[in-house]
Structures are given as structure tokens and as C-alpha cells.
Design a protein that fits this description.
By secondary structure, the chain is mainly α. It is built from seven helices and three strands, in the order H-H-H-E-H-H-E-E-H-H.
């Protein structure tokens, strides 16, 4: 069964047979999948009144273990948010009572970001639905295919990012 990417490849093959456009088969599908997956994840997060970046910060704090506290730099490295977004994101989350900033005991100039009870309750409510949604998204693949895809994507990510 041909998909949109197959049609694009056929068009390029007809117009530019001199080019090897085979990478478009992977990159095009990754791009389309990314958009579709992001839309699915946004719907789940929206039901909990959060966005992906908020979920990522809350999840990073929650999975860090007690006392669920990290520096902004540690958060930035562990969560899927950029350094430019972390301060603004934390301001909004603190205003909602999801996190609180406290002075860093080991560095008087720095702060630590701590998950509040409200933030912990929110991530504990949202996480099971998020995981269920991810299982649903991947339901067309059997466990072996999931493992193979995860390994292949890890290889590609490592080749591009070094981590």
C-alpha cells in the first residue's frame, strides 16, 4: 500500500531520476509521524491543563525521586525543554503552584526547583493516561518491532547529537 511519501518519491524519481531521494522515505515519514504523534500527545496533555513542556518538567522532577528537586540546569538537561524556555516555563509553573523555587543550599547564588504537592498530584494523574496513549500510538507494532525501531532511532539520534 502506497502512502503520501511513496507518491512524493515517485514524483521525484520521475522528475529527477539522477538523484537518490531514498532518504526522503525515512525523513519524510519521521516528519509526518512527529506531527501526528505531537497532536496525539497534545490532546492528552490538554485534558490535564498542561502542555508538553510542562509535562516534561513535572515528569523530570517526579522521576528524579525524593525530594523531587533539581537545579534549573539539571532540569534543562533532563527535560525536553531548551535553556531559553526553562526560566519562562518555571515562572508559569510556579505561578500555578506546580513547582516552587528555593535557595540552593550548596550554592547561595543558585536555586533548586521542587515539585509541589499539586505538581506531584498532577503528574501522577497525567502519567498513566500519557503512557496508555503512547501504547495506543504504537499498537500497530509488535514488541519486537518496537524494540527494533527504538534501537534504530537511538543509533540515528546518537549519530546526530552525540548522546
Amino acid at each position: 500500500m502506497a502512502d503520501h511519501v511513496d507518491r512524493v518519491l515517485a514524483q521525484w524519481h520521475a522528475e529527477r531520476p539522477d538523484l537518490d531521494v531514498s532518504p526522503m522515505a525515512v525523513i519524510g515519514r519521521l516528519s509526518r509521524l512527529s506531527a501526528l504523534v505531537d497532536a496525539e500527545l497534545r490532546r492528552t496533555f490538554a485534558r490535564h491543563g498542561i502542555d508538553r513542556a510542562t509535562f516534561d518538567v513535572l515528569a523530570t522532577l517526579r522521576r528524579s525521586g525524593p525530594p523531587y528537586r533539581l537545579t534549573p540546569t539539571e532540569l534543562m538537561r533532563s527535560a525536553m525543554v531548551t535553556s531559553g524556555a526553562i526560566t519562562q516555563r518555571l515562572d508559569k509553573m510556579e505561578a500555578r503552584g506546580l513547582v516552587k523555587r528555593t535557595p540552593n543550599e550548596t550554592d547561595g547564588r543558585g536555586v533548586r526547583v521542587e515539585l509541589t504537592d499539586a505538581g506531584g498530584e498532577l503528574i501522577d494523574r497525567a502519567l498513566p493516561e500519557h503512557v496508555e496513549n503512547e501504547h495506543r500510538i504504537l499498537s500497530a507494532l509488535n514488541p519486537g518491532e518496537r524494540d527494533e525501531l527504538a534501537a534504530t532511532l537511538r543509533t540515528l539520534l546518537e549519530s546526530l547529537s552525540g548522546s
